[in-house]
Design brief:
- By secondary structure, this protein is an alpha+beta fold.
- The chain is built from 17 helices and 41 strands.
- The N and C termini lie far apart (about 55 Å).
- The N terminus is likely disordered.
- The chain binds zinc ion.
- The site of zinc ion has 8 residues, from loops.
């Protein structure tokens, strides 16, 4: 450490002075035209990360800086750190771009003979550096986890923000408060990839200002976590944690099989998303995504509105037909609780359907006669541990095992507390079982697709009998690919034709699943309805990177109390499931629909009854209006690339919000709160032909007059571009943009439109 040679307790101000005074000799600096990094020559700690455009050093001098790495060994509680090395050298590598090699040697005890080597290279153009690490460990134990690079003491800035692509994406307005923890003792926030982290980057920045950008360029989707950590002194840092494939346990040489990208950007989370997008959309998962290849079934891309109902066909397909007759555009069905087993307990005993095979088949055939198609729910990793099939089929052997070799039971059903086990996608047994069930649902029952719950998640499995590397690796994604290929093969179009290809949907979103899933369920547009306020707001981060490569849909948005699964115990059943919610929550419903619309998702309505067409006319009409408008604008809202929306002032309002679990039961379980939200929501999209459109949705009761500041340069359009207003009824010209003056638009109450700028 830099400070160890200064010695003694010193004031921070004095330390800062010493740091700078010694900096020239103690710090090795590397730079390109946009970024400079500084590594201390004693231990290789990263002490400077300077955005050269703003001259801002993202790191501040501090009494203690975390070392550049930590290595955790199998069966050893104490991690190894750079300070444990008796010798360290850092050398500048010849040539351009600037690069350095760091080598730690002279470890003793358990790590005798170990050498740790890191290489850092500046990018040729971007304000980022690229890092790799390697451990040469003769005779050492197996490596369990490698923390690298570790970055500490991120300099405090005003108005800090942290953007994390947690599935759709989320933004913290006060990340330092979150990282100080509930008790102020510090907190560690971790996001696993592939899974809840839908793409490999984080952005920590000042709004507006300079940001820290942490990413990985791993196209094989190895298991890893991205971490932000804080301490009680208010200092925060970040790291990525890698899980070496344990088949390398006995190997003498482990090398990180991808690069970690660490750097800066100037702007906001959209800028960070654009920086990531420039790399990500050139990778296989984007170019080979099902939407880009044009293999998503036509009925999915043509769906104007999803209906998400639960139960027997008369509660699901019949309302869908009624809704479609009203909308006069394709309505498709997202169908839960069709299966013979109880929800969250009896999986995977889906067959036969609860209303009986023949009745179910008749109902799906009748829906097809009305051109209504359905995805049915099948969880792609849970097996109920109290089911008969669990013991009959010996499923335990193929379940995911933790580090201790045991199953970690998951309990979702709060009424019965019945446990489920996560099945291992790395086992042929589970892949075969799931594909076989899906095949029967598609071929025997006539459903059009499968919603694979929990698909955009993965787990580390440590069962040595499964034949995959223990812990880290790529076996989950490889297993998923193999399983979906098998499933599609089994359900594929017949040689004689006539049958459409099966549609596969997954929960959440995630870049490695883009080539395998036709659509991704993105419920965070309605996050307040199912999650307590936690300091994070939903943002369309995944959509900003991958929108033209995936179909996103889904919304918890509902006008009623939840339904009740009649296979659950009768004693917990509510007196009146699907009772209408108080109208004071209607604005919440409208906002959820507005967000999904401006963020380019297919609209979804949950728990719909045909009676709502009259009983909740205004709310349903809003949904139908957005669906009709979206159907006219799929070049933007399905195929478009996300752009930062123009700035405008719109009033905000205190909204009455409801939170409700599907396990509401007899107690009702409705939580209420009030929170301020804008009354107008906006997104902006570039069509494949280069035209740009701004999508606006108002949830206000009164007309809204807006003045938009449009940046023609950022949008790549003429400062005098022709403007056309598109609404659910048609298009009308609005003249041209006028340089340096705001674009004025009036939105009628509860309405939406697109403002299209032609190139
Ligand atoms: Zn396994």
């Amino acid at each position: 450490m830099i400070l160890s040679r200064i010695g003694g307790p010193l004031s921070l101000a004095f330390l800062g002075f010493c740091f700078h005074a010694n900096a020239a000799s103690d710090v090795l600096r590397l730079s390109n035209s946009r970024l400079q990094i500084g590594l201390d020559r004693d231990h290789g700690t990263l002490v400077e990360l300077v955005n050269l455009a703003t001259r801002h050093n993202l790191l501040e001098a501090a009494e203690s800086q975390p070392g550049l790495w930590q290595i955790e060994f199998e069966g050893d509680a104490m991690p190894l750190k750079p300070g444990d090395a008796q010798a360290f050298q850092v050398v500048r590598l010849p040539g351009k771009p600037a690069a350095a090699r760091l080598l730690w040697t002279g470890f003793t005890g358990r790590a005798t003979g170990l050498q740790v080597e890191a290489v850092v290279r500046l990018d040729e153009e971007l304000p980022v550096s690229r890092w790799t690490v390697r451990a040469l460990a003769p005779g050492a134990h197996g490596i369990r986890r490698v923390h690298f690079p570790r970055v500490g003491n991120i300099a405090r800035q005003p108005q800090e923000r942290l953007a994390v692509p947690m599935w759709m994406g989320q933004l913290a307005a006060d990340p330092r408060a979150l990282l100080s923890g509930k008790t102020g003792q510090g907190a560690r926030l971790e996001w696993a990839y592939p899974g809840l982290l839908s793409l490999q980057c984080l952005a920590f920045y000042a709004e507006p200002g300079t940001g820290l950008y942490l990413a990985a360029s791993d196209t094989a989707a190895f298991r890893k976590t991205f971490v932000m950590f804080g301490d009680k002194a208010g200092s925060v840092g970040c790291e990525t944690v890698h899980l070496p494939e344990q088949r390398e346990l006995s190997a003498l040489d482990w090398q990180l099989p991808y690069e970690v990208v660490l750097g800066s950007f100037g702007g906001d989370w959209v800028t960070a998303a654009e920086q990531y997008r420039a790399w990500a959309t050139n990778q296989t998962w984007a170019t080979q995504s099902r939407l880009a290849r044009g293999v998503v079934p036509g009925w999915i891309t043509n769906t104007a509105l999803w209906l998400w109902n639960r139960g027997r066909s008369d509660a699901v397909l019949t309302p869908a037909v009624a809704l479609q007759q009203r909308l006069k555009l394709p309505v498709s069905v997202f169908w839960h609780w069709w299966h013979g087993c109880s929800y969250d307990a009896g999986f995977p005993e889906y067959l036969p359907p609860r209303e009986g095979t023949e009745e179910f088949k008749r109902a799906t055939a009748a829906a097809h006669d009305h051109d209504v198609r359905a995805l049915v729910y099948m969880n792609q990793r849970l097996w109920g541990m109290t089911t008969k099939s669990w013991s009959d089929e010996g499923a335990e052997r193929y379940a995911v095992k933790g580090l201790d070799g045991k199953i970690q039971p998951e309990i979702y059903n709060t009424f019965t507390r019945q446990a489920c086990a996560a099945m291992c996608m790395g086992t042929e047994f589970w892949r075969h079982k799931y594909a076989g069930l899906a095949e029967r649902a598609v071929l025997d029952l006539g459903v059009d697709g499968i919603y694979m719950d929990q698909a955009c998640t993965s787990l580390a499995c440590y069962d040595p009998s499964h034949g995959h590397p223990r812990g880290g690796g790529t076996y989950w994604m490889q297993g998923f690919r193999t399983m979906q290929e098998d499933l599609r093969q089994r359900c594929g179009p017949t040689a004689a034709g006539g049958r459409q290809p099966v549609a596969l949907a997954g929960e959440g979103c995630g870049e490695p699943w883009l080539p395998y899933l036709d659509l991704m369920l993105s419920l965070q547009v309605s996050k307040e309805r199912y999650a307590a306020l936690d300091g994070w707001e939903t943002i369309p981060f995944f959509h900003a990177v991958y929108h033209p490569y995936s179909v996103t849909y889904g919304n918890y948005s509902s006008l009623t109390m939840p339904p009740y699964d009649d296979l659950w115990p009768a004693e917990f059943a509510p007196k009146e499931p699907l009772r209408l919610l108080d109208r004071k929550f209607s604005r919440q419903f409208l906002m959820e629909q507005a967000r999904a619309f401006v963020w380019g998702q297919q609209p979804t309505l949950a728990n719909f009854l045909p009676a709502h067409l009259e009983e909740r006319k205004e709310e349903i009409e809003y949904v139908l209006k957005l669906a009709a408008l979206r159907a006219r604008a799929t070049t933007y809202l399905l195929r478009g690339t996300y752009l930062r929306p123009p700035e405008f002032r719109a009033p905000a309002s205190m909204l009455e919000m409801s939170r409700l679990s599907i396990y509401a039961g007899q107690q009702g379980g409705l939580t209420e709160f009030k929170k301020e939200y804008p009354l107008v929501w906006a997104g902006a999209w570039r069509a494949p032909n280069g035209n740009v459109a701004v999508a606006l949705a108002s949830i206000a009761d009164e007309p809204m007059d807006l003045a938009l500041t449009v940046d023609p340069k950022y949008y790549g359009i003429s400062p005098r571009a022709r403007v056309v207003r598109i609404d659910e009824l048609g298009s009308q010209p609005m003249g041209r943009l006028a340089p340096k003056s705001a674009l004025k638009v009036t939105l009628p109450s509860r309405s939406a439109c697109l403002l299209e700028f032609s190139r």
